[in-house]
Amino acid sequence: MTTSFPSLAGHFLIAMPLMRDPHFAESVVYILTHDKEGALCIIINRPSGLTLADVLEQLQPTQGKLSDSDDQDVFFGGPVQSELGFVLHNSGPQFQGTMNFGSVSLTSSQDALAAIAQGQGPEQNLIILGHAGWGAGQLEEELRDNAWLSCPADLQVIFNTPVEQRRSAAAALLGVDLERLSHQVGHA
Fold first, then answer.
1. In whole angstroms, what is the distance from residue 157 CA to residue 136 CA?
2. Does residue 155 lie in a domain region?
3. Which of 118, 138, 48 is CA-nearest to residue 86?
4. Which of 8, 156, 168, 172 counts the highest number of beta carbons within 10 A?
5. Which domain holds residue 78?
């Protein structure tokens, strides 16, 4: 029996306690697109250990410190194309290579990084290396297998919640306390 899922674009995926994949264990994933072809997503709660200054040094080694934004964390967005950088930001500013997804945009060009470093970039932003993706039917299968909770996303969780609280804040949108979830899997 095939179960069709509605599009989950604009939703969070919250990893269930039994998630074994180290790329996604304890993660919160923001879904940018989801259709019959698959899903394009960004992990929003996994700092990479790099800062904007580290990235800029790799891109422009002769450039000095531009602003206090240089110490902004860079996040691991997922295991796909982890060498590529992106900026997830509010939809106002437009840069080269900007794709709009409703109330957020994803930019893949260096001009957005430079604007952030100069204190002129989008106020709400998340700098990311890589992304996550699922092929046709993969995400639906993982949802059927109880690997994820899903709920409509709240941009406050992405841009204004401390990183260590994002997973519990996303789960709270569903009224779920992750500390009380069972580690047992079941199907109704």
1. 28
2. yes
3. 48
4. 8
5. 11-180
